[in-house]
Amino acid sequence: MKNHLSDRINSMSTSATLAMAAKARELKNEGKDIIGLSLGEPDFNIPDFIKEAAKEAIDQNYSSYSPVDGYADLKQAIANKFKRDNGLTYGLNQIVVSTGAKQSLANIAMVMLNDGDEVILPAPYWVSYSDIVKLAQGVPVEVPTSIDTDFKMTPEQLEQAITPKTKMMWFSSPCNPSGSVYNKEELEGLAKVLRKHPNIFVVSDEIYEHINFRGGHVSIANIEGMYDRTITVNGVSKAFAMTGWRIGYIGGPEWIAKACTKFQGQITSGANSIAQRATIAALNAPISSIKFMIDEFHKRRDLVLELLGEIKGFNLNVPEGAFYVFPDISSFFGKTLNGTLINNASDFALYLLEKANVATVTGEAFGNDNCIRISYAASEKELREAMARIKAVL
């Protein structure tokens, strides 16, 4: 019955991270001992003070429709957070709260892109960027990077990718899947190019900003000439372990925020009311309240790099943020492992799932054919066991 579906849905890819997680669950249900390192989801419990805020909101009967763009006091908390953490001043009319940062991104694409508009994506990029752009009739333009440059796009690469059809550039820092973090000097280099092209807008996805091991996060909207053309995207899923609560938000030019509110009003309306009240508590809390999670991720990163470094064939760099490593495994291509021919990163990820019972994600889903993504949002015991299994089957 596929011919009765729209061309839009038939041309859309399935999220590779969700697909691998589903495959891992399927194998678990069959009784296999699968270690899941495929999903980008913190394995910590939500801090108790956030839970209490949600319970209080229920008791206070926050059960009615919320404003489309979010409660005013939540938007004030977001504005305060932008000022405190990023040095950015946004009025409440420049902020829109959505059902997760993924909806924030979709809103932006739908209100900004016309048929044929090009969007530059430094690759690797988060798995959904490309399909969201395509859904809005935009054209994703991948700019390949490599492990040798820590998967960061250079100003020269950006300049070469720009055409008369370029409308936007989307990127994340810290990056999913590579864990790369752009420093101020690197962002200034990109901004210098963009200032020569005043009609190009930037989506800066900063959902992992607090899971940052280099110290100090820099927002590109803070760079000279970039504030009025940058939409900063963030949320509470990663730093506060609130993935299922589905709260994301943007700060940006008022005219873009109004357009996103207009679009969202016809799609989902306001985000979950209880989750919004809990998010106020999360954003008003000092960063020290979640430092234990960041410190633990840092320890796990070092552990995984140490253990992977003992396996011949993995080319590694040191990611400075998020909770992923993105090793280049192209040395295995063309080789046969225990009777299985490895042609590409997808073959390699599937091999690890079937032979080692470890779920990872192919780098092909992120625009890089030579790598796999390994999430270390798992316990030290699970990570040690997973790395031992991988080593054994290789």
From TrEMBL:
Keyword Lipid metabolism: no
Residues in Aminotransferase class I/classII large domain copies: 32-390
The keyword Transferase belongs to this UniProt entry's keyword annotation: yes
InterPro entries on file: Aminotransferase_I/II_large, AspAT/PAT-like, NHTrfase_class1_PyrdxlP-BS, PyrdxlP-dep_Trfase, PyrdxlP-dep_Trfase_major, PyrdxlP-dep_Trfase_small
Species for this entry: Arenibacter troitsensis
GO biological process: amino acid metabolic process
Cofactor: pyridoxal 5'-phosphate
Record-stated family: Belongs to the class-I pyridoxal-phosphate-dependent aminotransferase family.
Highest rank taxon of the organism: Bacteria
Keywords from the UniProt entry: Aminotransferase, Pyridoxal phosphate, Transferase
EC nos: 2.6.1.-
Protein name (record): Aminotransferase
Pfam families: Aminotran_1_2
Any one GO molecular-function label of the UniProt entry: pyridoxal phosphate binding
